[in-house]
Amino acid sequence: MIEHDRQARLREIDRRHVWHPFTQMRTWMREEPLIIERGEGNYLIDVNGNRYLDGVSSLWCNVHGHRKRELDEALLAQAGRIAHSTMLGLTNAPAVELADALLAIAPRGLARVFYSDSGAEAVEAAVRIAAQYWGLKGKTRRTRFLTLNGSYHGDTLGSVSLGYSEQFHRHLRPLLFGVTKIDPPHVFRFHHGLSRAAALERSLAQAREIIREAGPELAALVIEPIMQGAAGMWDHPAAYLREIARLAREAGALIIADEVATGFGRTGRMFAVEHAELSPDLMCLGKGITGGYLPLAATLATEEVFAAFLGEPDEFRAFYYGHTYTGNPLAAAVARANLEIFEKEAVIERIAPGIEQLARALRERIAPLPHVADVRQAGLMAGVELMRNPERGESYQVAEQVGNRVIKAARRRGVMLRPLGDVIVLMPPLSIGESELDTLLGVTMESIREIVEAA
Ligand code: PMP
Fold first, then answer.
1. What's the mean pLDDT in 215-231?
2. By CB neighbour count within 10 A (0-12 exposed, 13-18 middle, 19+ buried), where does 12 fall?
3. What pLDDT digit, counting tens, does each position of 178-196 carry?
4. Domain residues of the chain, as ranges?
5. How much distance in Å is there from the Cα of 287 to the middle of ligand 1?
């Protein structure tokens, strides 16, 4: 617990000088900032010693809990050797070992690891690899990217182009490139009133038509497999993923799987593409790659894609992209230890009962609540959508801030959440125990009830 004066000073400086991401700072500056000082297992601990269950894995990245002994030790051991050296013209042991370990668990065909520092950069790199790949192949017409409506791929300009949102990005429009979009089979948003099977058929029919038209110009399909996270937790069946990937491949396009949110066990498999036995040409990893410890990301590529970049220096075929901290040894060492824990603790097998527990509670305790319009889940990723009138599809007003009020109510009960609009996101660390998950669900239920009854 830090002393009172220091705490007051931190609050004051934060209010006066810190600019928080994705935050309306006027609202923020009116409120008391909660300052996290420590973590322990699946809990965050604030400067006053209050404990909060980390219900969204610290923005979807924590995997085995905080202060995981093996990860702490890997970090310290690497710090005793070297914290950073560059991957441009040099290499380092942890980054090399991690590449080997990643490819051992990655879908078949992926053979090269390109490092960066955030999920957005992993996608940015994939987009640029795809664009340059087609250029190098002399297929200069293949410049279009196909994405799903509502998809989110990060906040660099290339990634924002893929996931353009009028509300968030309208001022950036002149800086962005256009993409071709298809509607995912998300019943609630695009196919209201249809069965899941009918929605799937309708989405596939649209995809067939659009891919047929755009086919010769398509560079790549970019997709968050199985669950579109930031859209508001929109799941799609493996059959959809399998079929649009097949259509895109048939049209000659590359497949880019953005597994930044879904990777490392989130959906119940190591990678979400496994649900559809899909081997993408490029796969983007971030978030959970270091167990949620340090900023590291990777873009995995097939040897076929990689080979197109080979040539003599005066041919200028190299991939001219990189960042200062690319392949950082501290992050790579922790990521390596993270993968060892997956194996040693059989994490993927171990989370199956928790996924079932979550499914049952969502069905029996959360879905029947008033104003719960829709409940969606893939593995340990779930979204609970709240509406003023679910039958009529009538949303709450943005000004009502219903989602935010629910998470504040949960915070008062010792659970840390973060909503996506009026979708309450549940995304606990994979290490969450049975009784902790029960607490998470019980608090979510009580908090929803408290707020929607007043709204
Ligand atoms: N892709 C997906 C699917 C994501 O969910 C996110 C982050 N929520 C990103 C990319 C961007 O990752 P980062 O915030 O690390 O840049």
1. 97
2. exposed
3. 999 999 999 888 888 899 9
4. 34-64+351-454, 72-344
5. 7
Q: Measured in Å, how far apart are the chain's first and last C-alpha atoms?
A: 36
- Would you say residue 137 has pLDDT above 80? yes
Distance between Cα 292 and ligand 1 center (Å): 13
Please indicate whether the domains covering 34-64+351-454 and 72-344 agree at the CATH topology level. Answer: no
Q: What is the pLDDT of residue 392?
A: 87
Neighbour tally for 45: CB within 10 Å: 16
Pick the CATH number of 72-344 from 3.30.450.40, 2.40.50.100, 3.40.50.620, 3.40.640.10: 3.40.640.10
How far does the centroid of ligand 1 lie from the alpha carbon of residue 312, in Å? 35
Q: Which atom of ligand 1 has the smallest separation from the CA of 155? A: 16
| Ligand 1 pocket residues where CB is under 6 Å | 118-120, 123, 152-154, 224, 229-230, 258, 260-261, 286
Q: For the beta carbon of residue 192, count every other beta carbon within 10 angstroms.
A: 10
CA angle 143, 146, 151 (to 5 degrees): 130
Q: Largest Cα–Cα distance of the chain, in whole Å?
A: 68
Burial of 195 from C-beta contacts in 10 A (0-12 / 13-18 / 19+): exposed
- Correct CATH for 34-64+351-454 of 3.40.50.720, 3.90.1150.10, 3.30.70.1150, 3.40.50.620: 3.90.1150.10
Q: Which atom of ligand 1 is nearest to the CA of 287?
A: 15
- Out of 147, 287, 289, mutate this one to test ligand 1's pocket (max ligand atoms within 8 Å of CB): namely 287
Ligand 1 centroid to 98 CA: how many Å?
21
Q: Whose CA is nearest to atom 1 of ligand 1?
A: 153
Structure tokens at 72: 């702490």
Q: What is the pTM of this model?
A: 0.97
Contacts of 224 (CB under 8 A, 6+ apart): 148, 151, 152, 153, 258, 259, 260, 261, 262, 272
Of the candidates 46, 52, 66, the residue with the CA atom closest to the CA atom of residue 1: 46
Q: Say if residues 84 and 329 touch (Cβ distance below 8 Å).
A: yes
What does the pLDDT read at residue 4? 86
> Which residue of 153, 284, 285, 420 sits with most ligand 1 atoms within 8 Å of its CB, as the best mutation to test the pocket?
153
pLDDT category of residue 455 using cuts at 50, 70 and 90: confident
The token pair that represents 176 in the structure block: 């962005």
Report CA(290)–ligand 1 centroid distance (Å): 14
